[in-house]
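Supplementary Note 3. Input sequence used for the single-chain structure prediction.
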Amino acid sequence: MNGALMKASSRFAIAAALGLGLGAGSARAADLGGNCCADLEERIAELEATTARKGNRKMSLTITGQVHRAVLWWEDGHSSKAYYGLDSTNSSSRFAMLGSAKVNPSVSMGFEIMIEIEAGGTSSKVNQFDEDGKLGGQISNLLGPSGSFNQANVDAYFGDARRVAWWIEHKDVGRLTVGRFESAGAVLTIDLGGIGLVASSSFVLLNGSFFIRGPVGQYYATNWANIGDPAANQGRTELVRYTSPTWQGFVFDSSIAEAGDYWGSMLRYANEFNGVRVAAGIGYERVRDRLTNATLDPTVAQFAGPAPDQEFWGGALSLIHVPSGVFVQGHYMAADFGDPAQVVSSYWGSVGGPTKKDATQWLVQGGISKNWFGVGNTALYSEYGKALDWGAESAGRNYAGNTSTASCTPGSAAGTANATCSSTLLNFTPVNGVTDTEMTIWGLGLTQNVDAAASQLYLGYRNFQADITCTGATTAAGACAGVAGGTAKSLPTEDIHVVVGGAVVRF
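The predicted structure, written as discrete structure tokens, is reproduced below.
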């Protein structure tokens, strides 16, 4: 009887809170005749059908996520500015809906839907000309006011589907995930120090869209993302993924995606010995997926020629001495873009060209993370790393802007310039015949956890240096700025300094 009373009282509470007031002035609501309860039951049923619940009494529902916003200051050797309120691509704002249910004591099923921010300015999209981060690849919009995003109340779509997948798990066998999810593959820095929000393992998520500048202030027709890692490890795609149970600290993952031509595996480990916490991992990916052109033609090499055969791997090791908080962590990864005669896949930035050089990246971070103030761990850190040959081709890669608006027509290929109107760069200095690239980063900063608010504050600095070797002819605007065919030389470049401060609030 108590259960029935509780159910009845719950149903009447829903009606009272959400709907009875809507009809309080009607004759039917005031009528206490014989049909009052039937009408009330019908109204309650309507409300129950439209009221958000925590699951459906069988599958639980949890809503979680984070809001991450920052202030970014930059100085590129000739100009500087601060951009306010950006979303940080190091760990984007997002929300997720998670569900799970027990099938029996050993088997569970569930789902995850995660949406991340794409609206407004983000740290990886802004550059010297675009503080809104809206132009992105459509740099042609710089030519006129149509490219402006200055209207205060104009919004893009909120987000991008980061994860949409269901899973089934047996506690002794492991979990099978089906849908859009991270692939198994190259492992990058495992963040035991708690600094990844400000100092991620990717080098291009803070300033990737900023253009590299020369010593006399010229803007080169290439940006920092062109010579840095593509932030592509464990890429998200439609897949089937297996995750093993934990055994002696080890977890094994393997996934297959696309049409079976993108697969990977990784092994991760976590444990603690005498106060030293250890986390490590290594992973491998292989890609044979063809890049699908906008124009479909089964006779062209893109579809009829050999398939790509590209391999990527990465390994990481992180250590923290728990009593003192001293930590060191880092990773190494490598990309083998395969036979130069093969077509590109577009994975891991392979769109550079059919002669794209193999590339590597490594990063070391260290510091101390300890709860000195009683509100949560404070982490002080420094870091150093290099990204090699991500923007180079063995035959020389050309980064060429447009010389005039007449050189291309929107929607068609460029005339004499190596660009289309979707990437127009007027009066930028070309950089041709790039055969070697090296990006060096170093940085330092701090993070402050606020445990009571499930939040984290941070302030960090990164310095970026470019070393670009190219064979283009020398012009007045700078070396490697003309047609290919010159002798190899180093392109003179300016460092860029980036300071970012912000907070993540989790819910």
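Residues 1-51 form one domain. Helices lie at 2-18, 27-30, 36-50, 301-304.
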